[in-house]
Amino acid sequence: MKIKIIEAMPDAETLLVSFHSPAGSGTALWLGIAPNLGDEVDVEFDLDEIFSWGKNITPSSSKVPKISHTNGVTQITAELIHASDKDCAALKLGGSVLLIELDGPVTQKSGYVDVRATRVLLYPTNI
Question: 25: Cβ–Cβ under 8 A, 6 or more apart, which residues?
Fold first, then answer.
């Protein structure tokens, strides 16, 4: 997904960036060579936590991909495109696919879901 870097906030050994994308804005840990403010970069999202159906992944009433960030929590509305038995799921966010780890089965097999994550990582794809 293409994002635009709005702000970079170095903190000890990490780099936190604020970004804007076609799906919305957020804040995430940056993994790679530090970007410049205003850079437009193609990135891969990694949601570095385990998701539980009904807790931090739930059915969405929205049918539009969206990213927002409030009080340290990133909310992503994405389309659930594949859910294996109970270990992982694939979400479509715009033109990108996000793989997430599950702690159990999801009861929804397709459609839009809301995911709440506290640890979002961005990797530049160098495309």
Answer: 6, 18, 19, 67, 68, 69
